[in-house]
UniProtKB/TrEMBL annotation:
GO terms for molecular function: penicillin binding; peptidoglycan glycosyltransferase activity; serine-type D-Ala-D-Ala carboxypeptidase activity. Residues 767-794 have a biased composition (Pro residues). SUPFAM superfamilies: beta-lactamase/transpeptidase-like, Lysozyme-like. In the C-terminal section; belongs to the transpeptidase family. This is PASTA domain-containing protein. The keyword Glycosyltransferase applies. It catalyses: [GlcNAc-(1->4)-Mur2Ac(oyl-L-Ala-gamma-D-Glu-L-Lys-D-Ala-D-Ala)](n)-di-trans,octa-cis-undecaprenyl diphosphate + beta-D-GlcNAc-(1->4)-Mur2Ac(oyl-L-Ala-gamma-D-Glu-L-Lys-D-Ala-D-Ala)-di-trans,octa-cis-undecaprenyl diphosphate = [GlcNAc-(1->4)-Mur2Ac(oyl-L-Ala-gamma-D-Glu-L-Lys-D-Ala-D-Ala)](n+1)-di-trans,octa-cis-undecaprenyl diphosphate + di-trans,octa-cis-undecaprenyl diphosphate + H(+); Preferential cleavage: (Ac)2-L-Lys-D-Ala-|-D-Ala. Also transpeptidation of peptidyl-alanyl moieties that are N-acyl substituents of D-alanine. GO terms for cellular component: outer membrane-bounded periplasmic space. Gene3D superfamilies: 3.30.10.20, Biosynthetic peptidoglycan transglycosylase-like (1.10.3810.10), DD-peptidase/beta-lactamase superfamily (3.40.710.10). The lineage of its organism: Bacteria, Bacillati, Actinomycetota, Actinomycetes, Micrococcales. Residues 695-766 form the PASTA domain. SMART domains: PASTA (SM00740). It comes from Georgenia ruanii. Residues 733-794 are annotated as: Disordered.
């Protein structure tokens, strides 16, 4: 909007009165006022008016009317209102949506000759001028058109942040009245009476914090302006003279007196009958009211308040909304926007109920829990909850906070939380991408990895010795384990050995390609400890990263807003969402298969099993059990649950949570149980979908035929087998026809196809077996035994 010029010449009060009187007389005699107006001489003031007529050349003749500020509303996915935002609580409506009773009431009390004058009321202004010449000021006698002009100038100053313009539009001076009069006449030449009345009813103040008749009707009567009756219309029309003094809530007696004045004016103008008047004045003002306040901001969104704030931050980060946050905020608070979001209210309630069932609000433990849920393949955020109330902490609600535990600093959250073993999935992805398999056998006991053994191509400075690593969640049953078993049981040492065979930058790169970053927005660190989850990440990013696996390897940026329209229904740019294929289906199928074993009776995620529905996921527990996670998914829905202390890395060991004492807290306990409760209810009635089956290469790898090493020396055979990727053990020698010290046989035997990494036993030869001993000469037959002696006689 182009700023309106203001008079630049100093004018004495009597000159202004003369000009105003001349202005009035011109209007009264039907003269047309245009730019460059020459005022006629009229009676005693004619000379002054003629001499001062050129002053009108400096006055604006056309009124630039900005769109009045209007509240914006945020909607859930089903169209239900969640929150309202405004600097002025106003809802703009057309005149056909405003009761005729309101129109009549306003005209009767504010400007009874509205439909007869041309912007100013000569009769009223002459009377007021005669009473105010001595004081050099002019008050009263403003037409509805002039009041509309004044409100437009004030609103223009508010919208532009021009305090000087507001001061000029509200000052008590003849100059202001003259300016309003000039603009009012010009406005009536541009638009019709209905347009002016509609504009006034939408811009005027109808309460201490209410602008426009529609917002006033909803606030005081809980109904639309179209449905207002006679008494209600009179009450509203009376407020505009002094919104604070005539506020029906704070000052019902004042409001009732003013209402009755309006009703008398309506009766006088024959807008109502005597019977209607009597009926309306008989109702006490308090009995008329059904006050409904319109909360401003996300506080009113209840359990969706944190999601609401996420949306606001998302919009404030959107450069297409303005050059800076202040301009973008003006658009939200004044623009009359309708913001359509992705939040599924049913899933939101289910997520909240699931979280507080595990860790209630204000649990004495001080432990917090947060959950985000995302739709795979779209990135739509369908739920975002935590076990705290939105707001400032108080004695009655000590855990209340505005910090969003689900997101990072860019969206009103913190730096995130250590991911623990949930990060192992990204090592598993790289393992399969580099041609390994779930059946590969890897060390489950190796604890020490010297600095030089690590490959960190993108950041060599992150290389470090890794000593005395331990297993936390799972206990290995042998010195080597298959990758599948290690995943099921979350064996730390196996995943360290896997990562040590690859480039850490590729592992971290997989996570980054799936949207994972630190909560402060910084890239993930590729240090060796990252394998076990030392990077601090957020529940939303975790849920969305795992949703990539549910979507067959397609990563979608998280999206909270699907559409924004302005007051006219035109689309407004929203933060874009994009989907990109980041993983090959074969790899995804292998990872999904492995993570389904986690969510099984034998896995660390056994408490997350969904009866009758396949699910995949990963537990995670940070050192000293400071943070615990479960991140899981089905083909249709993904979710991440975090649990811990929101400030600092404080252990949850030996803690009573929700009335139950816990020696240990793992990702497979409270977080997995919470996820299971949510998913069971959120997917109720949703058809069961199964994951695609993995290929044999991902399950078993590319098997290699064992080379023939029988007859070779043990050292030579060992070297050949190791070159083919096999581990070697040497058994006890056996006799054979092969020379001593050579290999007599192998287990498995030559030509058998086996997995690289599996163990082959070499059985050395001890040489031919010794020849059998010659039998000794036959011994003479034994002498015949003598007959037995007869028995002695009795």
């Amino acid at each position: 909007m182009t700023p309106l010029p203001s008079p630049t010449r100093a004018v004495r009060p009597k000159q202004l009165v003369a000009l105003l009187l001349a202005f009035v007389m011109t209007a009264a005699t039907g003269g047309v006022l245009v730019a460059g107006l020459v005022m006629p001489a009229v009676g005693a003031v004619g000379t002054v008016a003629t001499a001062s007529s050129d002053l009108f050349e400096d006055l604006p003749g056309e009124l630039a009317i900005p769109q009045p500020s209007q509240q914006s509303v945020m909607l859930a996915a089903d169209g239900s209102p969640m929150a309202t935002f405004y600097l002025e609580n106003r809802i703009v409506v057309g005149l056909d949506q405003i009761s005729e009773h309101v129109q009549h009431a306003v005209v009767a009390v504010e400007d009874r000759r509205f439909y007869n004058h041309k912007g100013i009321d000569p009769e009223g202004m002459l009377r007021a001028a005669a009473n105010n010449v001595a004081g050099g000021q002019l008050e009263g006698a403003s037409t509805l058109t002039q009041q509309y002009v004044k409100n437009v100038l004030i609103e223009a100053g508010r919208v532009s942040g021009d305090d000087e313009a507001i001061k000029t539009a509200t000052e008590t001076s003849l100059g202001r009245k003259l300016r309003e009069a000039r603009l009012a006449v010009g406005l009536e030449e541009q638009v019709g009476k209905d347009d002016i009345l509609e504009g006034y009813l939408n811009i005027a103040q109808f309460g201490p914090s209410v602008w426009g008749v529609e917002a006033g009707a909803r606030h005081y009567f809980n109904k639309s302006a179209a449905d207002l009756g006679i008494g209600e219309s009179a009450l509203l029309a009376g407020i505009t003279q002094s919104p604070a003094r005539h506020d029906p809530v704070a000052h019902p007696d004042n409001a009732e007196r003013r209402r009755n004045e309006v009703l008398r004016d309506m009766l006088r103008e024959e807008y109502i009958t005597q019977e209607e008047y009597d009926e309306a004045v008989a109702v006490p003002v308090p009995d008329m009211l059904d006050v409904q306040n319109t909360p401003n901001g996300c506080d009113a969104a209840g359990i969706a308040a944190y999601f609401c704030e996420y949306v606001v931050k998302d919009l404030m980060n959107n450069e297409s909304w303005g050059k800076d946050r202040a301009e973008r905020s003006q658009m939200l608070m004044r623009g009359g926007l309708t913001i359509h979001t992705t939040l599924d209210l049913a899933k939101q309630q289910t997520a909240y109920d699931s979280v507080v069932a595990s860790v209630p609000v204000n649990d004495p433990s001080g432990i917090k829990m947060a959950m985000s849920s995302v739709e795979p393949g779209t990135g739509k955020i369908v739920a975002m909850v935590q076990n705290t109330n939105y707001g400032e902490a108080s004695e009655a609600d000590p855990s209340a906070m505005q910090l969003n535990l689900n997101v990072g600093t860019s969206h009103g959250g913190g730096r995130g939380f250590q991911s623990g073993s949930s990060f192992k999935v990204f090592t598993l992805i790289e393992w399969l991408e580099t041609g390994h398999s779930l059946g590969d056998l890897v060390s489950a006991t190796k604890k020490t990895y010297p600095r030089a053994s690590w490959n960190i191509s993108c950041a060599p400075e992150y290389k470090a010795d890794y000593n005395n690593a331990t297993n936390l969640e799972g206990i290995p049953t042998s010195s080597k384990m298959s990758v599948l078993d290690a995943t099921r049981q979350s064996i730390n040492l196996t995943f360290l050995d896997m990562a040590n065979q690859m480039d850490m930058c590729d592992i971290v790169g997989n996570a980054a390609s799936m949207g994972l970053k630190q909560g402060n927005g910084e890239p993930l660190m590729p240090n060796p400890a990252a394998v076990l989850g030392t990077n601090t990440v957020t529940p939303l990013d975790q849920a969305n990263a795992f949703a990539t696996l549910a979507a067959g390897g397609t990563y979608c940026t998280p999206v909270a807003v699907t559409k924004v329209t302005d007051r006219a229904g035109n689309d407004v740019p929203v933060p874009p969402s994009s989907c990109t294929k980041v993983l090959e289906p074969e790899v995804v199928n292998g990872v999904n298969y492995a993570l389904q074993q986690v969510v099984s009776a034998r896995g660390t995620g056994k408490n997350a099993v969904l009866p009758g529905r396949p699910a995949a996921g990963k537990t995670g527990t940070a050192n000293d059990e400071t943070h615990a996670w479960f991140v899981g998914y089905t083909p249709q829905l993904a979710g991440a649950v975090w649990m811990g202390h929101s400030q600092g890395d404080k252990s949850m060991m030996y803690t009573t949570i929700n009335g139950r004492y816990n020696t240990w807290v793992f990702g497979g306990s409270y977080p997995a149980q919470t996820w299971q409760r949510y998913m069971t209810r959120a997917l109720d009635g949703v058809p069961v979908e199964r994951f695609a089956q993995p290929g044999s290469r991902q399950l078993y790898g590319d098997r290699v035929a064992l080379p023939a090493v029988v007859g070779r020396s043990v050292d030579e055979a060992r070297a050949i087998l190791r070159d083919h990727g096999f581990d070697v053990t040497v058994a006890d020698p056996v006799a054979s026809t092969w020379p001593p010290g050579t290999v007599a046989e192998t287990d498995p035997g030559p030509g058998v196809r086996a997995r690289p990494g599996s163990t082959v036993a070499l059985v050395p030869s001890s040489g031919p077996a010794p020849a059998p001993a010659e039998p000794s000469p036959a011994a003479p037959p034994p002498a015949e035994a003598a007959p037995a002696a007869p028995p002695n006689p009795a």
